[in-house]
């Protein structure tokens, strides 16, 4: 009897490729779920604005933006890991790849368990609107590690203003309000009638020829008197 073929040995590289595929599949599943969650969060933000709860609305919008950002970054990270796994020098980077896969797995678990609409609602109901700050609520929800960039924070503010405009409570942008305050006031136009211009002295009416003749006569008289001496 011939020997049965030996079972191929599973390498660390094979294991990393398998884990990568698992994470990508989970990420795609969560992406489909996230589409519904995002739509719900936007609707809850609108309802909060109608109840004059802008900070609560901003929490929903920040949570939505954090989820979108995390999904995009995780896709990018998995793409980078896939490239690394395919290199011939996998042994040299095995530790980094394993660490990256572990981080990706942790992020997916947090997205699935911590950032749900129900959990946000439950926490917001225990906080007064006056004391509610979007960033602080994010910390309480355990989203500190999923912070937004300045550009993403600006996008949240822009969306909040857009929803406020839809609800009929549009507000001035801070920059526009500041410009209006800093604009210098021009002096008012005087209401009194403009006074008459001061009168200038009249021009001499004596003809120029008479003046010149008088000067010539005086000069001749002085010359005649000088010749007598």
From TrEMBL:
Q: Which InterPro entries match?
A: Snf7_fam
Q: Where are stretches of biased composition, namely Basic and acidic residues? A: 166-185, 211-220
Q: Which organism is it from?
A: Meyerozyma guilliermondii (strain ATCC 6260 / CBS 566 / DSM 6381 / JCM 1539 / NBRC 10279 / NRRL Y-324) (Yeast)
Protein name stated in the entry: Charged multivesicular body protein 6
Q: Kindly list the GO CC terms recorded for this protein.
A: ESCRT III complex; multivesicular body
The similarity annotation says: Belongs to the SNF7 family.
User: Could you name the domain of life of the organism this protein comes from?
Assistant: Eukaryota
| Keyword set, alphabetical order | Coiled coil, Endosome, Membrane, Protein transport, Transport
Q: Does the keyword Coiled coil apply?
A: yes
User: According to its UniProt record, where is this protein located?
Assistant: Endosome membrane
Q: Cite the residue spans of the region called Disordered.
A: 166-229
